[in-house]
Amino acid sequence: MADLIESGRNFYATKKYKRALVLFTKAIRSCPCVRGVERDRCTCKDFKMVAAQGGSIFREAMYTCRCDVGRTFSKCENVYHIQALDFRAATFEALGKFDHAMKDAECILELAPRLPDGYLRVGKIAQLKKHDEYAWKMYKAGIEALKEGSVDSSPKSQQLYDAQKPLNRRFFRQDPISLPAELVTHIFSFLHLSETLFVDPPLSRMDILKKMLSWAGDGGARKIVIPDTLTLTEAELTLLLNASPSLEHLEIRKPRGLSLSSIENIWKRLRHVNISGCLDWFAQTEEDNTVHTGRLLQTFLQNAASSLEHLILATIPPQWRNSVPQIPLFPKLKTLKMGYRIHGDLGASFSMFPLAVASPRLEQLCIGPDVPSLGPEYGPIWREKGQDMWPHLKVLVLHASSPEGEHAITVSTLQFLRCLNRGNSLQYVRFEFSAHELLGGLPNLFGNDLDHKFDVSQYAEFRNLRSLRSERMWISPDGAQPLLSNAINNEQLTSFDIVFPERDPRSVTTLDSSARHLKGYDWFRGTPSIHTLGCYGFSFSPHPKNDDDRLQNLLLPQFLATFPNLRTLHIDSSNYGQDAFVEVILSIMKVTRLKTIYMRLPESEALEKLRKTARFKGIQILWNDYSRQWPVSLES
Predict the structure, then answer these.
(1) DSSP for 281-299?
(2) Which end of the chain is more exposed for a tag (fewer CB within 10 A), N or C?
(3) InterPro entries from the xrefs (predicted)?
(4) Does pTM surpass 0.70?
(5) Cβ neighbour number for residue 361 with a 10 Å cutoff
(6) Could you tell me if 232 and 257 are in contact, meaning their C-beta atoms sit under 8 angstroms apart?
């Protein structure tokens, strides 16, 4: 058989197709499986019909036979028999006799349904006849057959994948609901309600929502996110909520003209709620004897409180700021973010004590911006019971974006930090202030200008503090040492920002204030656990004119060089011109082993020079921008 096939291939190569056909036919008839008689094709099989009906082509080839052929002849995987049929089919193709070629191709499929040859040849001929979908289904059937038979590593197996790939875009379509649940969830995570509501032909939006909710199965949607670009009616929102008793995640960002009209207590699995941009939902007024949405929101939170783990609110609800705060009990709440005070409410206070009682397992808290006061009236209680409040709190982020808010939040923060579990559960603390100039200059956190009765060493230990960040709140070296010493000794502190005090441009005696400030941090030099530092607002010699000035500008690089594991630097100072600032950074790069530098500089020749040097040293230069990720990832 091998000699006949080889001779036939030679005739095929020289386009002597008729002589090639004779030799291929002789080879086919000489296979032992034909038992010396003519082997007819089974007429019971209809591969096209099975493919059109979505059936199994493999099963059709393997088992379907009601005629004498199946009883007389067995399957045959003789490589020469298969080759002879395949080459004869190719010869018929060359002659343009596609029907004859298809008969031989289907014969291969009938003889050896576990081999790729028949699927490949049938698919190729189908494509030549412009039957692309049938070809795609044939290639797909071949791939599935090989997987079942564990014969999917041959070169011809790869040919099946290669042949199917160009057709996948046109024919590989499935109803996503028929896929496994985890795939359905993944697919729908890429769908936006604002896009799926616009279909052709137009349908009722309520009908579309009902259809989408039916896909979710019993319990309705698990996650609902309504962006500020989507306009929903109140009826549509009510439908979404009421049809989703198994809801776990709800985000509503700046909805227009909506309220939580549904206040039924049906959500037992709701763990994440984000209502981050609709201040009118937090109003407490009543108009025309109609309960305002603020009351409905309070009821909604009360109903969901038992299961909530993550909560983000646009501002502190008014019911929580009453003389007798009405804060629901959140037994499972882990993260809480609240901010954006209601304008005109600056004089109102908000006590942290009732909130701490209502959320005993809180791990991360973000308050602000513009919380006017944190309620000092509970000061004695804090000192007495502070060690029992929020024993699991690891993250504290405080915002202020107005001078009034900055002043109030500074003092309250000191009281808060010193009393909270002696600071020993806190791992990450961040203070954020606005970019505008603060009234009275930058606040001196933990400095000597504060009331002596709030001595930090008396109230706070901060044994597990990993990160203390602030671009604008400066800490005196004398105040920072008792604050950070325990965390440094425990090798916990990894990130810290040094904010230099503002120099008075009217006084020549303050020109070396940055040098004195940095000198005060001598006790901090070389801390081995530090891998990230921030340096802000320094002014050593912003306009160097001589060698002494240039030596002044080396004080910061020399300081940073003492940290053996420093890899990330955040740096910014408005006191320097661009060229002088770049020179400072180049000096820092020479003496440190930094991997990343965050900074703010406009495009210029000096910046391009800096980038080239950084690339040579393997250092990334990035725009200085604190991550606003929430919740905070403590692993990073």
Answers:
(1) GG---EETTEE-HHHHHHH
(2) C
(3) LRR_dom_sf, TPR-like_helical_dom_sf
(4) no
(5) 14
(6) no
